[in-house]
Amino acid sequence: MLLEIENLVARYGRITALNGISLTVGEGEIVTLIGANGAGKTTTLRAISGLVRPASGSIRFDGREIDRLAPSEIVRAGIGHAPEGRHVFPRMTVRENLELGAYTRRVRSEIADETARVLDIFPRLKERYAQKAGTMSGGEQQMLAIGRAMMSRPRLLLLDEPSLGLSPKLVQTIFVVIREINARGTTILLIEQNARQALAVASRGYVLEVGSIAHSGAASSLAASEAVRAAYLGGAA
Questions:
Q1: What's the confidence (pLDDT) of residue 210?
Q2: Are both 162 and 131 inside the same structural domain?
Q3: Are residues 7 and 109 in the same domain?
Q4: What is the three-class DSSP state of 148?
Q5: For the whole prediction, is pTM greater than 0.70?
Q6: Partner of 126 at 20 to 30 A CA spacing, among 112, 138, 164, 207?
Q7: Which residue intervals of 78-218 are DSSP H helices?
Q8: Are residues 148 and 160 in the same domain?
Q9: Dihedral of CA 69/32/144/92: which sign?
Q10: Host H or E run for residue 228
Q11: What is d(CA 140, CA 124) in angstroms, rounded to the nearest whole number?
Q12: How far apart are CA 88 and CA 122, in angstroms?
């Protein structure tokens, strides 16, 4: 397995956000985490990327323990993170935002190659290349946030609510892009409030409830589960 999380516990002060979760992500997969707000989904991604220090448990990436590494070392190990809320640098151009995503890379030709790859996946960013990020639409900023995370050429890409706040049309576009990124060889761990779309794009999934994994399995099985449908899919088959 590319990513292995075992008995992970994470806390914010006295509040336990993750209560001993275990999950895996295989090379080439799209795996999704679904659950209500406050279930621990974002904390899981923040723990993987080193932004939250686990209280106990282990996180292994490609067989290497990473739960005590600094975030910059985790990026160098091959993990990219596009956080919830986009968090682009609004006063910087698209080009400058993308270059910041490549801060761990030193070979200019590799950065140029990765920029070309990102702009090929996101043609809109090529049109906005010299534009300041803060003047772009929410959908364009989301594309930029994902593109910036891709600039380190991660083996594993963590996506936190990529469709949040977007129009239905742009939601469809983002999920097409997620499939394309994966088809080009990047493994994806996806958090998404739109559980129906997430399960449609993923091969496997986990359902988090109050810091614990309540259900797991093939995405198709979760989508067919009465409990999951009732809680996250509006009760529809």
A1: 93
A2: no
A3: no
A4: helix
A5: yes
A6: 164
A7: 94-101, 108-121, 123-127, 138-150, 168-183, 195-201
A8: no
A9: negative
A10: helix 226-232
A11: 7
A12: 16
- Please indicate, yes or no, whether residues 125 and 182 belong to a single structural domain of this protein: no
Chain segment 141-190, per-residue pLDDT in tens:
999 999 999 999 999 999 999 988 888 888 888 899 999 999 999 999 99
Residues in the chain, total: 237
- DSSP lists the bridge partners of residue 82 as 159
Amino acid at 62: D
**Residue 142 lies in domain:** 92-153
Residues 184 and 74 in one domain: yes
| Distance from chain centroid for Cα 211 | 18
Q: How far apart are the first and last CA of the chain?
A: 32
Segments in the chain below pLDDT 50: 236-237
65 Cβ contact list (under 8 Å, min separation 6): 58, 59
Q: What is the pLDDT of residue 235?
A: 55
